[in-house]
Design brief:
Dynein heavy chain tail domain-containing protein; four-stranded antiparallel beta sheet; DHC; 47 helices; dynein intermediate chain binding; 1157 residues; dynein light intermediate chain binding; four-stranded mixed beta sheet
Length: 1157
């Protein structure tokens, strides 16, 4: 058939379709089929076992080129090369025939089929055909396609997919999004389905033989639309014995064929669990098919014919002979267990999690349905063993896919840990199954059988456990010999062996074998590899022992040994290493025993006498919770010491003799540390007490020493209860609901109770301070009265109002508080505020009072200056804002008056002392003070010096002479006025200070009937009881009298100018005695002015007579000359001259004669 003949007339074909067909025809003509033919001639002989002659005779027919061209041109198509065996009656060699077709068909004569699948849309003759074609061999022949398809999926498609996915590494999240896990599951399900089809026990199909006459009669009745019966048969046939015999023979054949199905059975232990399940499900379907045939019109008509002919022996026992009813009943009951059996979940599991999950499903289903279904326990036990075999195979398949020896240790340990968990899951479920099986056997009253299952995975379980321990020891050894642990090294060691490399090479021996092969041959291979591994590791252990003993030998104390043991504890599971360090173990175990004994002694001292008790009080831990924490801390230390024992002895330390003893002692000690009795005793005590939050807010208690005291009516045990419950809940204790509610109430009231307690305590302390500082009592009376008013108000408040109060007061302003509860909560805050103000004012006033006392005391020692006194009095005046201030200020003012009066008395005495000093005394005292000040630098002397009066003398008073008149300038009255003014100035330093006043801070004027009080301290001058104030005035008058007398002597010289010389001479006459008296007086008086001084000092006053001295002296000289010029004076001078010229002898000799004057 050509391409052109296949194309219909153009009138019935669209232009686009015509172009497409023409294009395909062009492409078909472009592919060279000879290339494909040559390819087949090269491919098929080795693949199909074909000869070239057979291929040329049968494969390359007239339509070969057209089929190949169409296959090459059409995209995504496949072509099949089938090899079939020809039937021949001869006994010679078989004859095979080959043909090529675009569609696949199957029959029993097919030997094999080769599928050629295009990998590109269109084949290209210029490119090699092997790269464009995918070849798949589909086997046929005597075996069903299930085996070959299962082999293709299990050993080709699925491994190839897993290998590709495995090379993608850690893209696990991406795999989940791409659906790779689901694809793996589908592959597993497909493999499982093919395996089930392969393992199914073939249930023979039963086809009942029907006589042709019966078939025609039934067909005729069905055509007429009526129910078939024997009336549709010819009458001759109904009574024909031959016909009836034939029908009876058919019935006998039916019985035999049905019995072949109903009596069918199988050995459970001979196959898999899926075969057992599928057997019963298939048997049920076969029995249902037989029942369907027996209910057909043909079979019913046959039975009617036999009954009509009175052949009851063939009809009556028909159902009983077949055994169909009993078999159906048994199958239905057994299939209660087999239906929905989740075995496929196990067989299609692709990872360990799915396997573990499937075990839960399988045993839950088995245990549940076994109680309902009469499935024999004798068959259930082998069924579980068959499930164990499937479980073993599936586990092996999953573990083998991971290549355990090549995986990192973390992955290896995780996989085998999960495997151990799966084995434990099996054991747990197996225990449940055995219990169910025994219970079912007892209820069914079946004959006793041993309920025992031999799991097929026992060897695999033991191998996995051993592998995990072995790999763990190897990993510990590898880590310890690594460069980071110090036992290994980067290069060759002293002994010529690199331990790290040696351990790696030892492991390489094991990596090359199948470690999960538990067969006899596999076990032998494993033993051989393990022995080779142990030989290499033994050399490494010897090196480790040498270095470990060296480290332990150089350890300076037990703690360093413990660190070494803790670091290399993982190696102690090796008997060789453990035996080498046993002597050090004994030493450290003794150290641990000493520590545990000290822990015993610590426990014996009891919590209340320990340091922890005082620390708990500091940290506000209640006694019960503190005792529990203390006991748990001891238990933690005990666990630490037990951990040290494990570090020293290694895993399984409790199996050693010393370990067993320590384990026994630690267990007994832990029982003593059990805090449950303490907690229960506390519960009993709380339940026994009548604890509650009620009663009045305050109470008055009587003191032992007499008197009363205000206290808060709140049981401290309630606060302790709240803290105990809080800490016990933190310690994971279950506190009863009633106690917990009481603690919640305490927690709610606790802030207010603590606030009240603190407020009352503050109030009491403040009252004590006021008692200790009596002078300030009247000042804080207002604040104390306010606190007492709050206490009186609180006397009517009860705790019941606080229990159900909420904390809305924290978020609402005080003005918005309404209701009794809010008023009570506000009372707590107001009371605390009032007492706080009372405390602050009291403390502030105490500090101020101390400062005022210090300042008042300083008034007696401060420098005697107006500014110093004013500053101190201003500091005293700073107190303000208190009640009863006027009375308190009056008392303080009296105290200040007393001090100032003393200062006035002292300063007057000092003034008098200074006033009485003359010039020499002042000069001597000044020199003495300067010398003492240099030698002594103490502060007191400097203060005394500062306080000493610097008496300012009056300006010098000059004696002057003008117009032959002597006078004093300034006059003596000026000195009196100056001294009195100085005295007044010193007195004004004190008397002029402003008094402290209480009305300074009062607003407005106080209208009082009394006169205005004085504002200064002038009245102090009237308070002297002695002549202290009179003395300075008396001294001034005395000093004035002295000066006046001295000045009077100078004023006498005025007579030198007032007298006439002749009057004097006439008065004296010629009396020598008068002249002698005058000369004597002149000589005596001349000493007043005839000297080197120019002034006369009276201490506080100086008389300067320099100007008068010269004039008086000149006047004296004039008077002297006048007197000497007189005659008698000349005679006296002559006589003296004569006397002077006489010799001493003559004078002596002429004594008797003498000369008288």
């Amino acid at each position: 058939m050509s391409i052109s003949s296949a194309i219909p007339p153009s009138s019935s074909v669209s232009p686009s379709l015509a172009e497409s067909i023409n294009g395909n025809a062009a492409s078909l003509s472009s592919f060279d089929t000879s290339v494909f033919k040559s390819y087949l001639l090269s491919l098929l002989p080795p693949v199909l076992g074909a000869t070239l002659d057979d291929l040329r005779d049968s494969l390359f027919d007239d339509e070969f080129d057209e089929r190949i061209s169409r296959f090459a041109a059409e995209g995504g198509s496949v072509i099949y090369v089938a090899k079939t065996r020809l039937e021949s009656e001869d006994e010679g060699p078989p004859i095979y025939q080959y043909h090529i077709a675009p569609h696949l068909s199957y029959n029993s004569s097919n030997v094999t089929t080769l599928a050629l699948i295009k990998r590109t849309p269109v084949l290209d003759t210029l490119a090699p055909l092997p790269s464009q074609l995918h070849i798949l061999n589909l086997f046929g022949g005597e075996e069903t396609p299930y085996e070959s398809l299962h082999a293709v999926v299990s050993y080709a498609v699925k491994p190839w997919f897993d290998a590709f996915v495995g090379t993608r590494g850690g893209a696990k999240e991406g795999d989940g999004k791409m659906g790779i896990p689901m694809t793996k599951k589908k592959f597993a399900e497909l493999e499982l389905s093919l395996l089930h089809l392969q393992q199914n026990v073939e249930i023979p199909e039963t086809h009942l033989i029907i006589h042709p006459v019966i078939q025609r009669a039934v067909a005729q009745a069905q055509a007429q639309g009526v129910r078939p019966n024997i009336n549709h048969l010819p009458t001759s046939q109904i009574n024909d014995s031959t016909f009836l015999n034939t029908l009876q023979g058919h019935v006998n054949i039916w019985i035999k064929s049905i019995q072949a199905v109903t009596k069918l059975s199988r050995d459970v232990s001979s196959g898999t669990a899926s075969q057992e399940i599928n057997f019963w499900l298939s048997l049920e379907r076969a029995l249902e098919a037989i029942e369907t045939q027996l209910r057909s019109d043909e079979v019913l008509m046959v039975m009617d014919c036999l009954r009509n002919a009175k052949r009851f022996h063939a009809t009556v026992s028909f159902i009983a002979d077949t055994g169909l009813k009993d078999a159906t009943d048994v199958v239905h009951k057994h299939n209660q267990l087999m239906k929905d059996f989740p075995l496929n979940e196990l067989l299609s599991a692709t990872d360990l999690d799915k396997i573990q999950e499937s075990l839960h499903l399988i045993f839950n289903h088995l245990n549940k349905k076994l109680k309902l279904s009469p499935y024999p326990i004798r068959r259930a036990l082998p069924l579980v063993e068959a499930i164990s075999r499937d479980f073993n195979d599936q586990l092996l398949r999953v573990l083998t896919s991971h290549r355990l020896p090549y995986t990192p240790y973390e992955t290896f340990d995780r996989l085998l840990s999960q495997t151990q968990a799966i084995f434990r899951t099996w054991d747990e479920h197996m225990g449940g199954f055995i219990d169910v099986a025994r219970d079912v056997t007892r209820r069914r009253r079946e004959k006793f059988i041993a309920i025992k299952v031999q799991p097929a995975h026992a060897k695999l379980m033991e191998r996995c456990r051993y592998l995990r321990d072995w790999r763990k020891q190897h990993e510990q050894l590898a880590v310890m010999t690594g460069p980071t642990k110090g036992l290994g090294g980067s290069g060759k060691e002293v002994g010529g062996m690199d331990m790290e490399e040696e351990v790696k090479e030892a492991y390489e021996v094991v990596k090359s074998i199948d470690v999960l092969d538990v067969s006899v041959e596999g076990t032998e291979i494993w033993v051989t590899a393990e022995n080779a591994y142990n030989e290499r590791v033994a050399r490494v252990e010897n090196q480790i022992i040498a270095r470990l003993r060296d480290r332990l030998g150089t350890a300076r104390n037990a703690n360093e040994m413990f660190r070494v043991f803790s670091k290399f504890n993982a190696l102690f599971v090796r008997p060789k290493i453990r035996g080498a360090i046993q002597e050090y173990q004994t030493q450290l175990i003794d150290s641990v025993k000493v520590d545990i004994k000290q822990l015993h002694d610590k426990f014996k001292t009891q919590y209340r006498f320990s340091e922890a008790y005082h620390m708990s009080q500091m940290r506000d831990l209640p006694p019960i919770a503190g005792a529990i924490i203390w006991a748990r801390e001891i238990e933690r230390q005990l666990s630490t010491y037990m951990k040290r024992v494990e570090d020293v002895l290694g895993k399984g330390w409790e199996l050693y003799a010393e370990g067993q003893k320590l384990q026994t002692e630690s267990t007994a000690f832990r029982r003593k540390l059990d805090t449950r009795p303490v907690y229960e005793a506390w519960l009993h005590d709380i339940n026994r007490r009548d604890m509650g939050i009620n009663g009045r807010l305050f109470e008055i208690i009587r003191l032992r020493g007499g008197g009363y005291q205000l206290a808060v009516n709140f049981d401290p045990q309630i606060i302790t209860l709240f803290k105990e419950v809080r800490n016990l809940l933190w310690l994971n204790y279950q506190v009863p609901h009633a106690i917990s509610n009481m603690a919640k109430d305490a927690k709610r009231v606790y802030p207010h109770a603590v606030s009240l307690m603190e407020t009352v305590r503050t109030y009491s302390q403040t009252l004590d301070l006021v008692e200790k500082n009596q002078p300030i009592e009247m000042l804080v009376a207002e604040f104390r009265n306010e606190a007492q008013r709050m206490i009186s108000r609180g006397m009517s408040v009860r705790w019941d109002f606080f229990v159900n109060a909420f904390d809305t007061h924290r978020y609402l302003p005080a003005a918005g508080l309404e209701g009794r509860e809010n008023r009570n909560l506000a009372f707590v805050r107001e009371f605390a505020g009032v007492v706080s103000v009372f405390q602050d004012k009291t403390n502030s006033l105490i500090d101020s009072y101390k400062e005022i006392n210090r300042v008042v005391e300083e008034l007696s020692t401060c420098p005697f200056t107006t500014q110093a006194f004013a500053e101190l009095i201003a500091k005293i005046q700073s107190a303000e804002g208190y009640a009863n201030l006027d009375h308190w200020v009056a008392r303080l003012d009296q105290r200040i008056e007393g001090i100032l009066l003393q200062r006035l008395s002292s300063i007057i005495q000092l003034w008098c002392t200074e006033f009485e000093k003359n010039e020499d005394d002042s000069r001597r005292d000044s020199a003495l003070r300067d010398l003492t000040s240099k030698r002594r630098g103490d502060k007191k002397f400097k203060d005394d010096k500062a306080r000493s009066m610097r008496f300012a003398p009056t300006p010098s008073t000059y004696l002057s002479s003008e117009d032959q008149v002597i006078f004093l300038d300034p006059p003596i009255e000026y000195a009196r006025q100056t001294w009195i003014k100085q005295l007044h100035d010193w007195l004004a330093v004190v008397c002029g200070q402003h008094r402290i006043q209480s009305s300074r801070y009062e607003i407005g004027l106080q209208m009082r009937g009394t006169s205005m009080t004085e504002t200064t301290y002038t009245s102090l001058l009237t308070q002297f009881t002695d002549d202290t104030l009179n003395r300075p005035f008396a001294l001034i008058e005395n000093k004035i009298q002295q000066v006046t007398e001295y000045v009077g002597k100078w004023l006498q010289f005025q007579s030198l100018w007032d007298l006439e010389a002749e009057y004097v001479f006439n008065r004296l006459g010629d009396s020598l005695a008068n002249w002698q008296q005058l000369l004597t007086e002149i000589k005596k008086t001349r000493s007043t002015f005839d000297n080197s001084d120019t002034e006369r000092s009276f201490g506080v006053c100086v008389i300067d007579y320099e100007q008068v001295q010269a004039r008086v002296n000149a006047k004296y000289d004039a008077w002297q000359r006048d007197i000497l010029s007189r005659r008698c004076i000349a005679a006296i001078l002559k006589a003296r001259n004569e006397l002077e010229h006489h010799s001493i002898e003559g004078l002596v000799g002429g004594v008797t004669a003498g000369r008288r004057f």
